[in-house]
Design a protein that fits this description.
Strand order of the largest sheet: 3-2-5-6
Largest sheet: 4 strands, antiparallel
CATH topology: Structural Genomics Hypothetical 15.5 Kd Protein In mrcA-pckA Intergenic Region, Chain A
Shape: globular
CATH class: Alpha Beta
Number of domains: 1
Radius of gyration: 10 Å
Number of helices: 2
Number of strands: 6
Structural class: alpha+beta
Order of helices and strands: EHHEEEEE
CATH superfamily: RNA-binding S4 domain
Strand content: 15-25%
Length: about 60
């Protein structure tokens, strides 16, 4: 997904790519350890993502561009 700003927060990114339906669902999947950023488990929903980052969630991989 292409972003227009310097960064996007992880929970907002998950909503934007339709990996989750809501911010509440994003919080749950992140807290349950179901999300990886650049291959590493990520539990901070406010994690800043920058172009080049890879996010794995819901059995899919998404790229930040």
């Amino acid at each position: 997904m292409k972003i227009e700003t310097e960064y996007i927060k992880l929970d907002s990114f998950l909503k934007a790519v339709n990996a989750v339906a809501s911010g509440g669902e994003a919080k749950i999947v992140i807290n349950e350890g179901l999300v990886r950023v650049n291959g590493e488990l990520e539990t901070r929903r406010g994690r800043k993502l920058y172009p080049g980052d890879q996010v794995e969630a819901d059995g899919r991989t998404f790229s930040v561009e």
